[in-house]
Amino acid sequence: MNAWFGRVGSVSALPENKPSVWMITDPSFPTDDAALVASGCEEEGVPLAWDIKSGTSAELARMACMRSHLRVGIGIDGAGNGSIALVSVTEAPYVERAAGSPARLRWLGQTAARISKGEPVAKETTG
After folding, report:
1. Burial of 16 (C-beta count, 10 Å sphere; 0-12/13-18/19+)
2. In this structure, what is the dihedral angle of CA atoms 6, 11, 12, 17, given to the nearest 10 degrees?
3. Domain residue limits at 34
4. Which of 24, 28, 44, 55 would bridge with 78, disulfide CB 3.0–4.6 Å?
5. What is the CATH number of the domain that holds 55?
6. DSSP code of 106?
7. Is residue 111 over pLDDT 80?
8. pLDDT value at 2 more than 60
9. What pLDDT is stored for residue 19 in this prediction?
């Protein structure tokens, strides 16, 4: 897959049927920080489609994974919490972490991309 990152509805938006990890963020999430999550996906060669809605990180991740053809979604809420949800895991998010640092945001993207490819998850970044 070619790496790609773009917000839904933008001129260069990825077609909705293209396989990609989806991320949905709270409106208060800084736009520039979305690129940090995308860089983690890009390292793994997986495109990231991005949209904005209100909700908790778990709710946003659930919405995102339901839109993803790869069945993996990332949600980041206004409090700076990040979640990764899988269509196949319905009881709770697969991963829930504070997403307050650039390294953690990148790790969330990388982790979602690796999960979508069925590869082992990289060691967690704590910084």
Report:
1. exposed
2. 80
3. 5-117
4. 28
5. 3.40.50.10150
6. H
7. yes
8. no
9. 83
